[in-house]
Design goal:
115 residues, mainly beta
């Protein structure tokens, strides 16, 4: 099983980034896909979820209206479009796949929002 994130980097406040996660080694379409983040000294927190079946989405309040999660089951990818980024969005962002008791994690990608 592999989850490989990409797209992180340094961006100014108000800017945008698009994170991608490429999945392999499991039946991607059967798994809910999530983005988490962890800032220094803080616990890992859920950012956004997209369900396996109908593709319904859920967002943490602190990103609603700014971030959009999407998936492509044909390409086994999940994306996170991040707009109007704020310094408090600075964190390592992790891709996560979840189905019942099975959880898989990527290695994370750093997002830094700073002027």
């Amino acid at each position: 099983v592999q989850l490989v994130e990409s797209g992180g980097g340094l961006v100014q406040p108000g800017g945008s980034l698009r994170l991608s996660c490429a999945a392999s080694g499991f039946t991607f379409s059967n798994y809910d896909m999530n983005w988490y983040r962890q800032a220094p000294g803080k616990e890992r927190e859920l950012v956004a979820t997209i369900a396996s079946a109908a593709g319904s989405t859920h967002y943490a309040n602190f990103v609603k209206g700014r971030f959009t999660i999407s998936r492509d089951n044909a390409k086994n990818t999940v994306n996170l479009q991040m707009n109007n980024l704020k310094p408090e969005d600075t964190a390592v962002y992790y891709c996560n796949a979840r189905r019942e008791t099975r959880w898989y994690w990527g290695q994370g990608t750093q997002v830094t929002v700073s002027s």
